[in-house]
Amino acid sequence: MTAPVPPPGDGPERRLHTLVGRDGLPYRSLSSGTVGGHRRTRVYGRLDCPSALRAIAGGHCVTHRVFFADEATAVEAGYRPCAVCLPTEYARWKAARRAARP
């Protein structure tokens, strides 16, 4: 008896990734996303962020790691930019937050 042949497009190139949407809820996507975040701290940054990579290498943050299609989605989901890998975006976020205080 031969093994069943998977339908076209079901190989590793069709791997689904779990991303977080604008509503903060997870969804499945063919794209792996362009930014990563930390669910508890609500911070997002580049996938090559030195701070995040150090934490992950130390065995931290992995269970709370989330991914977003882009920065706009991360912001709309309630995450703020990382001060380490996105200093310009972080400064903009910080200034807007100060201006919003009464």
UniProtKB/TrEMBL annotation:
User: Would you say which domain of life the source belongs to?
Assistant: Bacteria
Which Gene3D superfamilies does this chain map to? DNA Methylphosphotriester Repair Domain
Q: What InterPro entries does UniProt report for this protein, alphabetically?
A: Ada-like_dom_sf (IPR035451), Ada_DNA_repair_Zn-bd (IPR004026)
Name of the protein this chain belongs to: Ada metal-binding domain-containing protein
Q: Which organism is it from?
A: Streptomyces lannensis
Q: Which UniProt keywords apply?
A: Activator
Q: Which Pfam families match?
A: Ada_Zn_binding
Keyword flag Magnesium: no
